[in-house]
Amino acid sequence: MEDKDLYGKDLPAPPKDRNCRTWRLVGEVPVGALDYALGGHPLWEIFRTVYQMSKRPYVIGGLTLLVGYVTASIKHAQRPVSDELVAFRRREQMKRLKKFLLGGKQPQSELPAGS
Predict the structure, then answer these.
(1) Which of 16, 37, 46, 90 has the fewest Cβ atoms surrounding its Cβ within 10 A?
(2) Residue 14 lies inside a defined structural domain of this protein
(3) pTM assigned to the model
């Protein structure tokens, strides 16, 4: 089975050492495209990009992730999942992002009744 990207092009085989510089620089592009294909929320992807910029390779790793997402978005890459799954995933990502931004506290609208 050959690995293909979202556009049907052959993906390069990952190197045996995934820590090599080239793989770490371009390896996130298909991940960003996959995030789009699986319905990742754009705001979530921006925060994810910023987070990835704090990891090696600094800045470039996050930017390549964003490039993959934006490229797939511009090309309107086909999504292999249902619209319902996309909506669910985006809702969950926004809940997690709100929780993170509120310092681990649940947003008021999600607290159980009587809290």
Answers:
(1) 16
(2) no
(3) 0.72
Can you give the residue range of the structural domain that contains 29?
A: 21-101
- Answer whether the bond into residue 57 is a cis peptide, omega within 30°: yes
User: What percent of the chain shows pLDDT beyond 90?
Assistant: 56
pLDDT of 4 > 60? The answer is yes
- Looking at the 3D structure of the chain, how many domains does it have? 1
Determine, yes or no, domain membership for 12: no
The residue among 85, 99, 82, 107 whose CA lies nearest residue 47 is: 99
Cβ 30 vs Cβ 68: under 8 Å: yes
SS3 68: helix
